[in-house]
Amino acid sequence: MASPSSNSHSEHTRDEAVLARLGYKQEFRREFTPLEVFGVAFSIVGLLPSIASVLFNAMPNGGPLAMVWGWLFACAFIMCIGLAMAELASAAPTSGGLYYWTYSLASPRCRNFLSWIVGYSNTIASIAAFASVDWACAIQITAAVSIASNQVYVTTNGQIYGIFAALVLSHAVLVSLGTQILARLQRLYILLNVCLCFIVIIALPIATPSEFRNSASYALGDFTNLDGWPSGFAFILSLLAPLWTIGGYDSSVHMSEEASNATTAIPWAIIGSIAISAALGWGINVSLVFCMGSDLEGILSSPIGQPMAQIFYNSFGQKGALALWSLVIVAHYTGTPVNTVWLDALLALAIGLLAFVSTQAINAIFTLVVTSSYISYITPIATRFAFKNDFKPGPFNLGKFSFPVAAIAVSWMVFMNMVFFFPTTPQTTAQEMNYTVVVLGGFMSLAVFWYYCPVYGGVHWFNGPVSNLMSAEKGQDDESASEKTGKGRGVDVLIVDA
Predict the structure, then answer these.
(1) Is the pTM for the entire model greater than 0.90?
(2) At residue 473, does pLDDT exceed 60?
(3) For 105-116, what is each residue's pLDDT tens digit?
(4) Domain residues for 155?
(5) Domains in the chain, number
(6) Where residue 352 sits, what CATH number does that domain have?
């Protein structure tokens, strides 16, 4: 029987061979096990804190019906996106992910430009995700203060922004830690998040007083429309809640070169994180609709400033709600291993300044995450089928269902991107408009301008992903020459000790 160490070495060798076939040498340490790779995607989802963050969107645009059935409806399409992405990840598990797939599958005439667009849209998605998660966490911290003060404390935008800035900077420090530390954190986060989900699913119905309990007909069938859009369109707008919550599953792709057995671990991490999040999230929403009472306007306008926190306050009382809400904040805090850099932190702080425009303006960061992510998802999935290429499926593939699933995924993302440019209410002002189109449109316009800029633009020098195997081979030749002269470097430039 092979020892665990020999199996690990065999997996690493296979991973390095796959990477070499794609044109790269191994550079990162493969510290992440399949469970920890799943943990990365699952931690980015941050299920309970994320549902709490965007409950303000689902409740006025359908209420219970949107929270329960809208969740399931959206999850079916999210799974299609995940399946299409998992196929690409299995075929080419590189940390470049979306950017690399686009370049390798598109026509030579446009692959540079398309991979450039993917790179910049994925960048703004990462920055917006960073900002939206920490803004939501800041709101949850002020909600905890409001609960502790029996709803006497009312926060200001300046105070929320101060907390937000502290969170951004602390998370920038967190993601600067070593790979091994981040890998081990995922196991703790999986346990914490799953336990939180079950606490809400089981304990909330038990603790809720009778006056806040809803009948099955109300919880599973009532449609409440408070924002003024036609009911059908309001329901579609409510889907931001599941689409933002179950997002970021491409994060595991960026860990491809740090994961063992990447051709299977990465696709299953994507699918697993979506499936488990969909099931647990549905359970949380069902628990909430049965236990939140019927005064949705009162919940949304509560001085606590956070709908789920108000529901907990009604059900558990002050001390119980504060204890549970503290765990929600901790889950948010430890569960945000956003793969970013300090520049992202500074840009996230800049986006956070929208809070001083209006509540609607800062809430646009949630739709900004979805729309910018979808641009970077649509492009590689579509290029696989839109151009002639030599795509070779990996161990995970859908066979004859590949094209129908991809077509559904792309059509859904295009449609939802158009929807999410609309304002939250039919009548709007400059302060209350949807700033998604401003931020995303401005950022991507600058990206296109930078690409086509005369003399200095990317069109003159950008060549997409560059293989580093040539430099590795040169390094081997240099090492061989050094050994002949008694000046060996003592390291193998092609194989990293894992």
Answers:
(1) no
(2) no
(3) 999 999 999 999
(4) 32-462
(5) 1
(6) 1.20.1740.10
